[in-house]
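User: Here's a protein and a ligand (guanosine-5'-monophosphate). What would the complex look like?
Assistant: Let me lay out the input and then the predicted complex.
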Amino acid sequence: MSLAVPERINEKYCRNPFCSRTLQGIIMAEESIFIKIMKGDIPADLVYQDDHCICVKDINPQAPTHVLIVPRKPIQRLADASAADKMLLGHLMLKAGDIARLLGVEEAFRIVINNGEGAGQTVFHLHLHLLADKTFSENSLGLN
Ligand code: 5GP
C-alpha cells in the first residue's frame, strides 16, 4: 500500500491548531501504544490518516490483510464511548469501508472490536481490526 505519508505520522497535525488542541488532550490521557504511534514515537506502517483516526498495519497480522483503525481520541474501550462520540464512531465505520476499498478487499472483510480483557483486548485504546484475504467460515464470528 503506497500513500504519500509524512515522515513522522503526526507532522501535519502538530502544525494544525485544531489538531494541536486534540493532541494536547491525547497527551494528557494514558499513553497507549497507539498514542505513541500517532505521536511518531514508535514506527508503524501507515495506511491512512485523517483528523479523526489513523489506520496502521497490525504488527502481528492474523490474516494476510490486517489493519487497525484507531480514533485519535483515546477512548479506552467501545463500552466507554458516549453519546458525544456518535459522529466519531460513525466515522470509523465509514472509514472501514473506505479503507477496505483502498486495500482492494471491499468484497470480503471482517471487522472485529475486542472490548475488555475477557474479549481479548490487549491495547486499551479503542480500535477496529479490519481483516481480509483469508476465508472466514460462514458460521464463525472468530478468525476461523
Ligand atoms: P487487541 O488485542 O487490543 O484487540 O488488539 C491490539 C492489536 O494491536 C493486536 O492485534 C496487536 O498485534 C497490535 N499491536 C500491538 N502493538 C502494536 C504495535 O506496536 N504496532 C502495531 N502496528 N500493532 C500493534
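Summary: The domain at 11-132 is CATH 3.30.428.10 (HIT family, subunit A).
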